[in-house]
Design a protein that fits this description.
Elements lengths: L1 E5 L2 H10 L4 E5 L5 E2 L7 E2 L5 E2 L2 E2 L4 H13 L2 E4 L5 H16 L6 E4 L7 H8 L7 H28 L10 H17 L4 E11 L2 E10 L2 E2 L8 H13 L3 E12 L7 H12 L3 H13 L15 H14 L39 H16 L5 E11 L6 E11 L31 E11 L8 H11 L4 H13 L3 E4 L2 E4 L1 H13 L6 H15 L5 H20 L3 H11 L1 H4 L20 E6 L2 E6 L8 E3 L14 E5 L6 E7 L2 E6 L6 E4 L11 H8 L3 E5 L6 E7 L2 E6 L2 E4 L3 H6 L2 H13 L11 E5 L6 E7 L2 E5 L4 E3 L11 H14 L11 H10 L32
Parallel strand pairs: 1-2, 1-7, 7-8
Antiparallel strand pairs: 3-6, 4-5, 9-10, 9-15, 10-11, 10-14, 12-13, 13-14, 16-17, 18-19, 19-20, 21-22, 22-23, 23-24, 25-26, 26-27, 27-28, 29-30, 30-31, 31-32
Helix pairs in contact: 3-5, 5-15, 5-16, 6-14, 8-11, 8-12, 9-11, 9-13
C-alpha cells in the first residue's frame, strides 16, 4: 500500500479518484506543528535550533497518518508546490520519523494543477524533499519568531496599548501611516479649467483651452477666478477653426495571466474582494481541479495550455483574434517564487465553474488567461487643435477610436484611478472646419492629496518595493486589521491612532528595521536561501547580531523617556505651526500650560502641563487642534431636580456624561447610536436616570427594568434578558411590548441568546444535513446540527459559502476528540478527550500572524510571534 499525504480533505478526495486502489490519500489539514509561542522556541546561541510542537487539535489526524504509514510500503508527500507545501511535507516526515512510523521509501511529488493528467505525470516523476526550500522556510519562520517575540515585548512595556510588531507587518503599516501624513499635510491649490462645448455634424464634443494669449496653459496656470473669467470671455468672443488634425495609430497588448499579486489586485478592483477572501476562494478552485496553483510569481503558461487557449480562441472568435505566434511572457519579479506557472484554468474548454464568488473569480481568471493569448487591440488616437482668428487662443479635443478590439473584446484590465478623457469619440473634422460653439464654461478645481491605499494599491506598492512575498500579503493585511492598527472604509485603509503611534515608535527607535530598503534586501537574502545561494544560519546570525542589542538598549529606557522622545519626533505632526504665529503647544483651556504627548494605561494622548489644575486632554492623532478634537469638559446644563452641572467628558473608553464629583458622582456612557452632536441636556438627564423600571410583570409580579449594558440596550426580568433595538426604545417601551420581547427571547433558547439562524446555507454536500450560520457567545459559527465550527476572523457570515461551511464542519469533525458520557467508554477516553481540546488553530493557516499581548488573570496565554 502507498500512502499519499496532502493538505486538505477536498484535495485528498479528488486525488484518490485519479489513483489506483493501491493508493490511500490522507489530509494533514494544513500545518501539523509550529514553534511553541513561548520564549526559547528558537535558540540563537545554538545555531538557531528550533523546538517544534504538534498542534493540539491535530492529534487524531496525526495518529491516523502514523497508523497508515506503519502499514505502507511507500510514503508520497504531495503537498502544495511551494515553500509552505515543502515545509508541511518536511514536518510530516519528521513527525513520522519520531514516531518510528516512517516507511523505508519516501518520495516528494508536486503538481501545478489537480487534474488526472497532472497528478499521473507527477507520480511518475518523484523527487526528494528540496532542502533549500526547507531551509528558506526555517529561516523565515525563525526570523519572524525572533522579531515578534523580541520586539513585541518592548512595545508592551514601553508603549501602552501597542499589541505587536512584525517584520513585514510593521513596514506595510508604515506605508499606510505615511500616506495618512501626506494627506494631512497636503495643502490644496486652486486652479481653473476653461472648456468649450462644440458641435459638428450633429455630434457634440468638448475642447479644452490649451493656449491663451499665446502662452501655453498647464494644469495650474489659471489659478484665480478673475483670470478664468477673462479666458472664458476670450473663448466666447473668438471664432475657432480647425488648424491641425493629428491621428496616431495605437496598439495595446494583452496583460499576462494572473500571478498571486495581480489576482489579488484585480479581484479587489473588479469584484470588491479582500486579499484573504480572494486567496481562500482561489484555494478552493485549485482543490476542485479548476485552476492551477494560485501562489505564484510566474506569468508563463505551459505549452499545452497555450495550445488549448489558442484553440478556444479560434473556436470562439474569427481568425483575426488569434495572433500568428503564441505569446510568451517573462516575469518582471526579481526573484520569481519557485518559478511556478501563472494562474490559469486547467481546461480552457470550461468557461464557467462553481457558483457565487467561486464563479466570479473563476470567470476573471479564465478571461485574463484566455485574453493573454489573443491578438492586440488596434486603436486610433485623434488630436484636434482649433485656433481663433487672432491665433492667440487654442482649443484642443482628444479622443480615440477602437479600430479592432482584439483582446478587449473579452477582457480589459482594471485601474485604481481611471481617466477616460481620451476614450471619447470625436466627429470627423478636417483643417479649415469651423465647428459650432454651443457654450463655454470655466470650472474651479482644487488639487487633491494622494488617495489612501486600497488593498489592490497597497499590495501593488509592497510588490514594487520588494517587501514581503505575494503569498503572504493577504495574511499581512489581515494582521493589521485584527490588531486594530488600521480600519477599512469604502475599501480604503485608514491609519488608526494605535497604528500611527506604533509606527512613530518604530521609526524613532528601530528605523533600520522598518526601512523599505532594509526589508526588501532581507527578502532578497531569504530568496537566496531558497535558491541555494546562501546559508540560512548565516543570514539569521547577521540579522540577530545587530537586532538583539538594539532591542536591549531600548528596553533599558524608561517609558517616560520614550514618551519624551516621541513628543519631539512627532512635534511637526502633533503641534504644527499656527497661521497667526502663536505657540502651537499653548493649552487652549488654561492659556499658560504647555501641551505634550503623554502615555497612559490605555495609550497615548495629549495633555496640559498644568494637570491636575487643568484637565485639558485630546486624543493622540488629532494634530494641531483640528476639527473633532476634544477641547475638554463641556457643561450641558443643570439637572432640573438637583441643580448640579451635567458635564460631557471624554475618557479612555469614549465620551461620557457626569454629574457631581468624587465617589458620589453619577456617570453614564454616551450610546453609539446617539452621536455627540445630538446629546442635549434632556438626553443627558434621561441617561443619568437609568435604569428605568417599566413596571411589574403581570405573571410574576417582579419588576421589568430597561437599561444600557455592555452589548447595548436591554430588558431584565427575573434574571432573564431581552434585547431592545435602540437607546430611544429604553424610554419608550411599555409593559405589553416588554412582556412580548421577554417571551420571544425565552422562546429563542434561554439565557437571552437568540437562536434564529443568521443565514441558511443549504444541505451539506456529503451528509445532506442542513447547514446554518448561528450567532454564538464568542461570535458566529456554522453547524449541521451535530458539529459546530467557529468562523475564522477573516470570514464574515455574509461572504460564507456552502462549500466553505462544509469544509469548516468537516475539519472540525475530523479534529474533534471522542465525546464524553458514553456508558461503555473506558476512563482513558475521557482523559484523552480533555487533552485534545486544546487551542484551536486554522487548519490551513500560514504564519503571517502577529504576537499579541497575553490577557491578564488568565492561564498562560499562547502568543504568536509576528511574522507579518
Amino acid at each position: 500500500m502507498q500512502l499519499v499525504i496532502v493538505e486538505s480533505p477536498a484535495k485528498a478526495k479528488t486525488i484518490e479518484k485519479y489513483l489506483g486502489g493501491d493508493f490511500h490519500v490522507l489530509a494533514s489539514y494544513g500545518h501539523i506543528r509550529d514553534l511553541p509561542p513561548k520564549d526559547g522556541s528558537v535558540d540563537p546561541d545554538n545555531g538557531f535550533a528550533m523546538s517544534w510542537e504538534n498542534y493540539g487539535d491535530k492529534g487524531k489526524q496525526l495518529k491516523a497518518i502514523a497508523d497508515e504509514a506503519k502499514k505502507a510500503d511507500r510514503l508520497i508527500l504531495a503537498t502544495d508546490p511551494d515553500r509552505e507545501g515543502e515545509a508541511i511535507s518536511w514536518h510530516v516526515q519528521e513527525v513520522l520519523r519520531a514516531k518510528k512510523a516512517l516507511p523505508q521509501k519516501v518520495d516528494r511529488v508536486t503538481f501545478n494543477a489537480i487534474t488526472k493528467a497532472a497528478v499521473t505525470e507527477a507520480m511518475a516523476q518523484p523527487r526528494a524533499l528540496d532542502e533549500d526550500l526547507i531551509d528558506a522556510y526555517r529561516a523565515r519562520r525563525a526570523l519572524d519568531y525572533l522579531v515578534g517575540f523580541t520586539l513585541s515585548p518592548v512595545l508592551w512595556r514601553k508603549l501602552p496599548g501597542a499589541k505587536s510588531a512584525g517584520r513585514v507587518q510593521s513596514v506595510a503599516l508604515r506605508l499606510v501611516v505615511e500616506r495618512e501624513r501626506e494627506i494631512e499635510s497636503f495643502t490644496p491649490q486652486e486652479y481653473w479649467s476653461v472648456a468649450a462645448e462644440m458641435e459638428q455634424g450633429g455630434q457634440s464634443f468638448t475642447a479644452r483651452l490649451v493656449r491663451w494669449k499665446g502662452e501655453k496653459i498647464d494644469r495650474l496656470t489659471i489659478g484665480r477666478e478673475g483670470d478664468a473669467m477673462a479666458a472664458k470671455a476670450d473663448v466666447e468672443a473668438g471664432r475657432f477653426t480647425v488648424d491641425k488634425v493629428e491621428t496616431k495609430p495605437l496598439t495595446r497588448n494583452p496583460p499576462p495571466p494572473f500571478t498571486t499579486s495581480t489576482l489579488q489586485q484585480e479581484a479587489a478592483r473588479k469584484l470588491g474582494f479582500s486579499a484573504s477572501h480572494t486567496m481562500r476562494i482561489a484555494q478552493q478552485l485549485y482543490e476542485d481541479g479548476t485552476i492551477t496553483y494560485m501562489r505564484t510569481d510566474g506569468v508563463q503558461m505551459d505549452g499545452s495550455a497555450i495550445s488549448a487557449a489558442r484553440k478556444a480562441i479560434a473556436d470562439r472568435y474569427d481568425g483575426g483574434y488569434l495572433p500568428e505566434k503564441p505569446r510568451q511572457y517573462q516575469t518582471k519579479a526579481k526573484n520569481a517564487q519557485e518559478a511556478h506557472e501563472a494562474i490559469r484554468p486547467t481546461e480552457f474548454s470550461r468557461d464557467k465553474a462553481g457558483s457565487g464568488d467561486h464563479a466570479r473569480l473563476y470567470d476573471l481568471i479564465f478571461k485574463r488567461a484566455l485574453a493573454s493569448q489573443m491578438a492586440s487591440a488596434r486603436l486610433e488616437r485623434t488630436t484636434i487643435d482649433m485656433v481663433d482668428g487672432s491665433g492667440s487662443h487654442t482649443l484642443r479635443a482628444t479622443g480615440q477610436v477602437v479600430i479592432f478590439p482584439g483582446f478587449l473584446a473579452l477582457y480589459e484590465e482594471g485601474r485604481d484611478d481611471s481617466d477616460d478623457d481620451d476614450s471619447k469619440l470625436l466627429p470627423r473634422l478636417a483643417e479649415g472646419d469651423a465647428p459650432a460653439k454651443k457654450q463655454v464654461s470655466a470650472e474651479q478645481h482644487f488639487t487633491q492629496p494622494p488617495p489612501r491605499y486600497s488593498e489592490a494599491s497597497l499590495v501593488k506598492r509592497l510588490e514594487e518595493l520588494g517587501i514581503g512575498r505575494p503569498s503572504t500579503y493577504a495574511s499581512t493585511l489581515q494582521v493589521l486589521k485584527d490588531r486594530d492598527y488600521v480600519r477599512v472604509e469604502k475599501n480604503r485603509f485608514f491609519a488608526e491612532e494605535s497604528g500611527r503611534l506604533v509606527t512613530a515608535f518604530l521609526e524613532r527607535f528601530f528605523e533600520r528595521y522598518v526601512s523599505y530598503d532594509f526589508t526588501a534586501g532581507l527578502e532578497d537574502e531569504l530568496d537566496d536561501i531558497s535558491g541555494g545561494r546562501a546559508q540560512w544560519q548565516q543570514v539569521l546570525e547577521a540579522f540577530w547580531r545587530d537586532f538583539k542589542p538594539k532591542t536591549a538598549e531600548v528596553m533599558e529606557q524608561k517609558p517616560s523617556d520614550i514618551t519624551a522622545e516621541l513628543d519631539k519626533f512627532l512635534e511637526p505632526m502633533l503641534f504644527p505651526p499656527k497661521a497667526d504665529g502663536s505657540n502651537p503647544r499653548a493649552c487652549p483651556m488654561c492659556g499658560d500650560g504647555q501641551l505634550s504627548l503623554r502615555g497612559g494605561r490605555f495609550g497615548a494622548f495629549i495633555a496640559c502641563s498644568n494637570y491636575p489644575e487643568c484637565k485639558y486632554t485630546r486624543k493622540f492623532g488629532q494634530p494641531g487642534g483640528k476639527e473633532g478634537e476634544d477641547t475638554g469638559p463641556e457643561v450641558l446644563g443643570q439637572h432640573p431636580e438637583t441643580g448640579q452641572d451635567i458635564v460631557r467628558k471624554s475618557g479612555r473608553f469614549g465620551p461620557y456624561i457626569e454629574m457631581g464629583e468624587g465617589k458620589e458622582a453619577k456617570r453614564g456612557s454616551i450610546p453609539k447610536d446617539l452621536p455627540d452632536g445630538e446629546l442635549t441636556l434632556d438626553w443627558a438627564v434621561k441617561l443619568l436616570s437609568l435604569p428605568r423600571e417599566v413596571g411589574l410583570h403581570p405573571e410574576t409580579g417582579k419588576p421589568i427594568v430597561a437599561n444600557i449594558g455592555r452589548f447595548g440596550p436591554y430588558l431584565l426580568h427575573d434574571g432573564k434578558y431581552g434585547r431592545l433595538s435602540s437607546t430611544a426604545e429604553i424610554f419608550e417601551v411599555g409593559m405589553n411590548s416588554a412582556v412580548v420581547k421577554l417571551a420571544e427571547a425565552a422562546n429563542r433558547g434561554g439565557r437571552g441568546a437568540a437562536r434564529e439562524p443568521l443565514k441558511l446555507l443549504g444541505a451539506h454536500p456529503r451528509t445532506e444535513a442542513e447547514i446554518k450560520v448561528m450567532e454564538g457567545r464568542y461570535g458566529p459559527y456554522v453547524t449541521d446540527g451535530t458539529t459546530n465550527a467557529t468562523l475564522p476572523k477573516t470570514v464574515t457570515p455574509d461572504a460564507l459559502t456552502l462549500d466553505e461551511a462544509a469544509q469548516l464542519i468537516d475539519a472540525k469533525a475530523a479534529s474533534a476528540p471522542p465525546k464524553k458520557g458514553k456508558k461503555k467508554a473506558p476512563a482513558k477516553k475521557a482523559a484523552g478527550a480533555k487533552k485534545d481540546a486544546g487551542a484551536k488553530k486554522d487548519a490551513g493557516a500560514k504564519k503571517e500572524t502577529g504576537a499579541k499581548k497575553p490577557a491578564a488573570k488568565k492561564a498562560p496565554a499562547k502568543t504568536r510571534a509576528a511574522s507579518a
